[in-house]
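note to self — DONT lose this again. spent like an hour looking for the file last time. sequence + predicted structure for the chain T wanted, 162 res
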Amino acid sequence: MQPHPNVRAVQQALDAAQACDAAGTPTAVRLLPDAVHTAAAAAEALGVEVGAIANSLIFDADGTPVLVLTSGAHRVDTTGLAATIGVARLRRATPEFVRTHTGQPIGGVAPLGHPHPLRTLVDTALGGHTEIWAAGGVPRAVFPTTYPELLRFTGGTAVEVA
């Protein structure tokens, strides 16, 4: 069976970036038996702490998409983060806005593999984990990586988001 086009796009982006997991081997997208729409569900399916899940959240910053990769252990402080990045307002994006800018559905948004690069902010709390897991383009696809790798291959900026 062929993987979903979103999964292929994410794997191709990982390969192009020469992304590695915690063991230093090339990162591969894995398909879970069932969809995992929350960090808690992903952590349970993978047998890891919820804080090691990198939630990919798209926000609307005055009409411009911002990707926030946050630890599954907490919520984004949108008011504080808006002030940190110098925008008037940062609000959760609609499903249509997310799909338009990522090509991926909410619950499966990956940190990469989008039609165009997105401004990316990476939660410093993820740095406390040896290995972190991110979505792979659809709700049942995930891949392992590390905090330094996530920063590198997304071109993200490390920030406190909670």
